[in-house]
Amino acid sequence: MNKQIILLPGDGIGREIMDSAKVVLQAVAHEYGHSFTFHQHAIGGDAIDQYGTPLPEETIQACQNADAILLGAVGGPKWDQVAVHLRPERGLLGIRKTLGLFANLRPVKGFQALLHASPIKEEIIQDSDILIIRELTGGLYFGQPSERRDNGNAVVDTLSYTREEMERIIDKAFESARIRNKHLTSVDKANVLESSRLWREVVEEKAKDYPDVTVEHMLVDACAMKLITNPSAFDVIVTENLFGDILSDEASVLTGSLGMLPSASVRSDGVGLYEPVHGTAPDIAGKGIANPLGMILSAALMLRFSFGMEEEASEIEKAVNECLEQGYHTADLRIKDGIQVGTKEMTDKVLENLTAKSISDSICNTYV
Ligand code: ATP
Ligand code: MG
Asked: Residue ranges of the Isopropylmalate dehydrogenase-like domain (predicted)?
């Protein structure tokens, strides 16, 4: 398959870990006979320095013509004094909005070698494998009016959604559940919110189109509790913007390795933007010690969600797991009796495990 991939390294460690994702993708392309073409563009602080804006027109154009986008991270102390509408983070919000990326997908699945670092008991999280789908472009974060009144002594924020906005995210969730373990938990606050009551109606209507998926409604407070007491009860969780923001951060703690988690922001036609959950880590930027695995796992998600390359994606995930099982880790992770390495060595280990796998496959094939 021929794919055009835009690379937006951004700032801080984003610039150091992007290459790791690129070389891993090149190795996969080589193994599977795909052709990936990479185009690098500026966003965030990097773009402010070069173009005077966090989201230059040429970056927007390039992203509009892309099959998928990989993003490092944006921001950092250097741009703290910049006017709010020109902040590096505006670049990211702007590109999500321009491309209409309404679904935020965050898989939450820990690696065995790192589970000891989770604040939750290992036996509770052992078998958990969750995909959280958060609506990204509506709800309280965008509803109008959002303002101060009464001389600043009263405030109003507006939670607003259209049926259509609910339908597209709920469809996405059913489709995702269908290719996973066929269980969907829809999270709302239908005992108090009108928006949640419409949400439930839409879920019920959509459920008729996906008879193979079991659906359960859960109030957000109950869900918050169950996520840490019985996380393996979940498969796919779908919820609106604010609830999703909170629940996805809560769930990420389960894995014991927040810095390794990937995320995706996608729309219905499969175009998506993929980025690690962590930020620019200004405290370690430029030292060559950043953990590249969140970025590499984001590239795996891109293969899975945007290109439908399930096998290729899981090969990358297996190679990452293998590295950790062998004890290799960056400074932000702890593995008992492990071997601490930098960004480049960690990337090389992933590549070694990827190619070791394909070599053993080809040996097997020779003897079949
Ligand atoms: P931002 O404003 O961009 O989110 P931040 O100051 O919040 O930046 P984060 O990037 O969120 O920093 O990181 C929080 C902490 O985790 C920092 O101490 C950082 O060094 C560490 N960290 C985050 N990502 C990584 C990584 N990929 N490798 C190593 N350490 C990381
Ligand atoms: Mg941060």
From this structure: 4-350
